[in-house]
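Homework help board

Subject: predicted structure for assignment chain

Our instructor gave us this sequence and asked us to write out the predicted structure in token form, then describe one feature. I got the tokens but I'm not sure how to describe them. Can anyone check?
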Amino acid sequence: MHVETLGDGRPQHTIVACVHGDETCGWHAFNRFKASDVELTAPLKFVLANERAFKLGYRYCDVDLNRVMPGDASSDRHEERLAARLGHELAGTKVLDFHSTESRGGPYAVVAGTDAASVHLARSTGLDRVVDISYMGGGVTQAVTGVAVECGYYDDEGAATTAHRVLLNFLAAEGLVDRESVESSPDVYKVVGEERGQGYRFLADNFQRVEAGEVFAEKDGDVRRADEPFYPVLMSTHGYERRIGFRAERVSVGSRARTAGTNVGIGGADGQ
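My token output:
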């Protein structure tokens, strides 16, 4: 794990990248920020979480770091030991955790519960869709005040560019840099279940309502139909080994972005 602090004093905010070692958009975003002329008005901590997997180009070495929090410092598995260290490093700070994905429909924010503090951070991303994924349990942001961002389709240039733009907006909205920002009033989706299956081709669109009886996935002539209406979230053809993705309900509809100054164009979950 690589930890770096910019500025003097005790940071109140932490930026996390590479919880999954092959999702490097947050790493690129942080390096772009350091190379820019944007000045911080408060200290900021950066954590490259799974440095070993990052250097190897793997998602993880032994187990998924995002699923083994809070970890076990005495474990013989790398990510379980790392999770304990990571939890200690994040404690007492507000966390922005960057990810990328095989699924389409990004960027969007992800929270582990819709408490006021987490929703506030989600609004600071400037994104107009938020997913409450507390159904899953675990995750880096569950035990801290934090928000994750799915920046786009794995680590193409677009995901890194989105991460950098979200980072700048987040820092401005949280008062760490002096520049214009967007505070969003997002649509909120709550994950209520999952669709298991291996080798299925996902046919619907994430965040677009699937009606009862509608086919949303197919494999060799075997079709999967919705038993009841739902919104697909993190569904894809290749994203998971034994899961198509998640079913969600839309629990509130936002009023799009509210600006502080001029809209900086963060973009919604339909892309840029």
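Reply (TA_rk): Your tokens look well-formed. For the description, you could write something like this. The first strand starts at residue 2 and ends at 6. That's the kind of observation they're looking for.
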